[in-house]
């Protein structure tokens, strides 16, 4: 069975916080270390076409999208290109501040940057809501992130297809921090924890969630579309009898 080709996209191109090679490379590194995937490639916003050429996207099974503050400068033509690939079946994993990404808004149809926010380095407890879902496989009932950025409700997304994680913060806020959507033939997973100044992407639980999310979002073979019925199908035989009677 062919292994999945993954592209990790980041709006930056250099070190950020505790990630000396960038957030995107930290994610790509643990995906490589897992030995569960095929090609692991990275792309960044400063590159031509934001690193997301049509050829690259056509060879990508799942796109991992990390973003922070430069959502408005992403070219609309590239957003359209990614949108079409998702509609055709490419999986999309949206991480942390990618809640405000143009591609998320376009896919779900609401202003996804509506939420409460505070960067205070407080405890975040991530509760696993659906323990039977493939994305939550191997996860505990909850796990703690010692220092994290606070995202809180209300979150301006439509009702998710599936709610997998809810986060509680020391200030008392809660947030739908892990949820899924299906659009066209593509599957989308949003996971909120992952601020660039905290070592969240080094945590085993977070790594497992992203790996599980990629597997879940993998494209599935599409059922061929047939126009009409084959000559030997029951419906075709029934139609033939109707015409002869």
Number of domains: 1
Order of helices and strands: EHEHEHEHEEEEEHH
Strands of the largest sheet, in order across it?
2-1-3-4-9-8-7-5-6
The stretches of 5 or more residues where confidence is low (pLDDT under 50) are none
- Considering DSSP H and I runs of 4 or more, what fraction of the residues is helical? 25-40%
CATH architectural arrangement: 3-Layer(aba) Sandwich
General description of the model:
- With 245 residues, this protein is an alpha/beta fold.
- The chain has one domain (6-222): Class I glutamine amidotransferase (GATase) domain (Rossmann fold, 3-Layer(aba) Sandwich).
- The protein is 25% helix and 29% strand.
- The protein has six helices and nine strands.
- The protein has helices spanning 23-34, 54-58, 76-88, 102-108, 204-217, 234-244, and strands at 6-10, 40-44, 62-67, 91-96, 116-128, 142-152, 162-169, 174-183, 186-191.
- It has a nine-stranded mixed sheet.
- A hairpin with a 2-residue loop joins strand 8 and strand 9.
- Helix 3 crosses helix 4.
- The radius of gyration is 20 Å and the shape is globular.
Short note summarizing the structure:
The chain has 6 helices and 9 strands; from the N terminus they run βαβαβαβαβββββαα.
Can you give keywords for this protein?
nine-stranded mixed beta sheet, Rossmann fold, 29% strand, 245 residues
Layout: helices, strands, pairs:
Blueprint: E1 6-10, H1 23-34, E2 40-44, H2 54-58, E3 62-67, H3 76-88, E4 91-96, H4 102-108, E5 116-128, E6 142-152, E7 162-169, E8 174-183, E9 186-191, H5 204-217, H6 234-244
Parallel strand pairs: 1-2, 1-3, 3-4, 4-9
Antiparallel strand pairs: 5-6, 5-7, 7-8, 8-9
